[in-house]
């Protein structure tokens, strides 16, 4: 008995590259950068080995380190000097992200993306303005419509500071339209908008919340971020954001949600982004530290899988480390 179909014939070293369906390159990757207004020095982020919070004065140097590896795009997160109920430092002209963006876009050729959310800037740690009763009744914490203006103001202030793209991650209904209109009104019609359209209420964000100091002081985010049990709802979320004017649709987290990346790939002609989140990064690092997994191989396989599922671009903490090896 001789099998006629022998897929092995195409697995030799010589032919594998010719029949490879997916490729990964540095130009697919976006590297997160944390800019911290509370420090004069670089501070390592314990839960994300290899990553640091840097002061504004180091932002350009940090971005150049990333560009030296071949990664040209960064997404900037901020740790403000102070927090208050309305997250005012998120949309201040001299806010930490605004100051960093001005320097990064003025002094480097990086493609600069601003993360638009309030959770790092509010003293309660939620992604918008909250109800007075929130502490006792956390089921309906964030006031959706009151939050829209603040997100729009944040996006415009980032665009004013030179951002090439803004990326709203607050999961506020209507945020894409509110931001798009505000950007256009302010003369920023060429600033692109990448929506965290499908953002799940995920336990995989833990290490990031340490890094950016953005954990909610009470309650959780499950009445504004998506239920991990839902798949069809992801298409609904993405459709709304596409109609509201998003240029890129993102799925977050990445690996546990490959089915969703695939669904969006099939349904939309927009570029699809996947966010390989902090927990996905920390897991591999922790296992590698114990000698249980090969860090580089598992990181590469993770990102390749996101691309295979349909992502065009990937936001990942592995960007710098992997880029040089691609
Ligand atoms: C802000 C924001 C978060 C992440 C990206 N933007 C935190 C959150 O929603 O809790 C998480 C990124 C990661 O875990 O790597 N809303």
Automatic annotation (TrEMBL):
EC numbers: 4.2.1.24
Pfam families: ALAD
GO cellular component: cytosol
Keywords in alphabetical order: Heme biosynthesis, Lyase, Magnesium, Metal-binding, Porphyrin biosynthesis, Zinc
Enzyme class: lyase
Catalysed reaction, written as an equation: 2 5-aminolevulinate = porphobilinogen + 2 H2O + H(+)
GO molecular function: porphobilinogen synthase activity; zinc ion binding
Residues annotated as binding Mg(2+): 237
NCBIfam families registered for this protein in UniProt: PRK09283.1 (NF006762)
Protein name: Delta-aminolevulinic acid dehydratase
């Amino acid at each position: 008995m001789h099998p006629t179909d022998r897929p092995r014939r195409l697995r030799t070293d010589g032919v594998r590259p010719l029949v490879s369906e997916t490729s990964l390159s540095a130009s697919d990757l976006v590297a997160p950068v944390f800019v911290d207004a509370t420090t004069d020095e670089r501070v390592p982020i314990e839960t994300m080995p290899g990553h640091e919070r840097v002061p504004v004065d180091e932002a350009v140097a940090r971005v150049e380190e990333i560009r030296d590896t071949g990664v040209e795009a960064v997404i900037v997160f901020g740790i403000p000097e102070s927090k208050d109920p309305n997250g005012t430092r998120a949309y201040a002209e001299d806010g930490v992200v605004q100051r960093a963006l001005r320097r990064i876009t003025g002094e480097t050729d990086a493609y600069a993306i601003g993360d638009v959310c309030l959770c790092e800037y509010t003293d309660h740690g939620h992604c918008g303005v909250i109800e007075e009763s929130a502490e006792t009744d956390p089921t309906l914490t964030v006031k959706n419509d009151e939050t829209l203006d603040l997100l729009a103001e944040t996006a415009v202030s980032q665009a004013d500071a030179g951002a090439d793209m803004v990326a709203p991650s607050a999961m506020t209904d209507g945020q894409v339209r509110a931001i798009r209109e505000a950007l256009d009104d302010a003369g920023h019609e060429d600033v692109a908008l990448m929506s965290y359209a499908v953002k799940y209420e995920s336990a995989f964000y833990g290490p990031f919340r340490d890094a950016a100091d953005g954990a909610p002081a009470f309650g959780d985010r499950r009445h504004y971020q998506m239920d991990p049990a839902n798949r069809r709802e992801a298409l609904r979320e993405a459709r709304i954001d596409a109609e509201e004017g998003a240029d890129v649709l993102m799925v977050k987290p990445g690996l546990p949600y490959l089915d969703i990346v695939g669904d969006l790939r099939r349904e939309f002609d927009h570029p699809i982004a996947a966010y390989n989140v902090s927990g996905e990064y920390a897991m591999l690092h922790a296992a590698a530290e114990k000698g249980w997994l090969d860090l580089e191989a598992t990181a590469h396989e993770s990102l390749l899988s996101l691309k295979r599922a349909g992502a065009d671009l990937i936001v990942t903490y592995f960007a710098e480390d992997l880029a040089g090896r691609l």
